[in-house]
Fold:
Amino acid sequence: MLQERIPDLSKCVEPDRVRREVYTDPDIFELEVQRIHERVWIYCGHESQVPKSGDYYTVQIGRQPMLMVRGSDGRISVLYNRCPHRGNMMCGDRHGNAGEFFRCSYHAWTFQHDGRLRSIPMMESGYAGTRYGRDNPDCSMKRAARVESYRGFVFASLAKDGPALTEFLGASRVAFDDMCDRAPAGEVEIVPNCFRVIQHSNWKIFLENQLDALHPSVVHQSTGRAAHEVEKQIEKRTGSAPLSYHMLSAFATVTIDKWDNFQTLNYPYGHCILTGYMGLRPKDPDTLAYEKVMEKAYGKKRAEEILGVNIHHVLIYPGLSVQSPLQQLRAVRPLGVDRTLTEIWHFRLKGAPEPIYRRSLAYYNLVNSPATLINADDLENFWKCHQGLASDGGDWVSFGRHHGRDIEKDGMVETAPNCGTSEAPMRNQMKAWAQYMQA
Amino acid sequence: MKTQHVVEQFLFRQAELLDTKQWQAWIDLFAADGVYWMPPEPSHKTWEGMPAIFAEDRNLMDVRMKRVLHPDAWSQRPLWGTNHIVSNVIIEKESPNGDVIARSRFHMMELRREDVRHFAGSYIHHLKKTKDGYRIKLQRVDMTNAQAAYDYVLQVWV
Structure:
């Protein structure tokens, strides 16, 4: 007997569970690309990635290869990475400088940085009397339908209609506010290095893991324990261990029951925030020196507000995970139903002393590099998760933890006290998913 | 000729320790202040204050070793093993005190579960001469394929 392969999309998502095909079906994945990734605001990059005129970075939005480029007027454009003549890819390198204009490597059509046609070899003799030429918009590189930036973070949407960026981001804007406000100069600068790691699992598995407070003490026990042991040895020998050891050992010392003390805040469009103090204000000379600089820049009261922001992770659905207190950002690029690329960046707080940058760097290297002490075990679980979901052993993925205890107010959902391990963030993401998919 | 031979033997033994998973013996080849460094791109001149795939002193090496030996290091549970070939050993510099800078090339095949991966690149070893033989002050590892996206991650030193 033949089973219906794709279930009715409207029946895929229930408030506390989701059909497994949502993660494994290639046709559903293609629909997701069209209805979610190629429609909503997707993070392209930071303005400081392309400081000079002609600087560009390639970025994948859904299935579309795009270019983020800085023009001679300083403005940033996001273009389809395609020559309108014969469809040749315009820039074959991942990033670089286009010079004064783009020049196609096939027939030397040239374009301004904003995509407008600049010249075609022997244009007059070759195209007189045809429909092709400078006045025809089809002879220019196509631009993303909408481009906006928020505090230097550039997003593009390939759909003409939809909410403005700030409306879309809503409360999740705090990811960028928190990151930038922690800089005495009020802005951050990208460190020009991108760690890129491919996961053999569906993109949603990664996003759901980001605010999953039940997993760290289970999955990261090995590194937490190892770091804790070495941290104690260093303390015994020298009096104190670098803060980076604490960041790692917390995975073991914050035991599974303590994660319920965290809280998640869940917003429209699938965005979620995990609150929780990251232990970044020890009373050591480096922290005190930084706090002094912050007080000088902002005044005592405002500096205290900024440094007191209690955030662990911000998830901007469907493609960005931000750890603002440590200036780390992971962009998620779905490559296929079971392949997902993460692009991992970190930032410098402009005006902050070097030792504060070194903390962010230590976290970037230890947790987020391709030799990660943490994510290796996540990726192993994501892979196993995806394998298990391909099985006929069950039809549903359950998101029932603390279901029914969520507190709804002002258009958002917050978890009840002592329910930090709630699966509310997954319920919230799937609610947004269902809305996008059926729209 | 003698230095060439001794350095080669040292590099071959270091690779052998990795392939036979003798982590502590591998770590003990490093000087007390030794560093294992894998830059994300060849232009980097120092590991300090820079993004790095690995930038580990002996304390961090100890964390990595203890982690992979923990029974709940999930990613290390599947069948896993490596095979290194080290070659093209060139002595760049030999100081009067016997310290050496050596350059070499490696090829590593890794098996994990059902999958085989290949990594290749170059090593630069800054070796300090001691009464117990060479100790590594700095090992720089440049992966030829380090600038492409990593399909899965690296769990142990290369």
In short: The longest helix of chain A spans residues 221-238. Residues 270 and 428 of chain A are 5 Å apart (CA to CA). Chain A touches chain B at residues 191, 193, 195-200, 219, 221-223, 225-227, 229-230, 233-234, 245, 248, 341, 346, 354, 357-358, 361, 364-366, 369-373, 375-377, 379-381 (CB under 8 Å). Chain A has two domains: 42-150, 171-213+262-438.
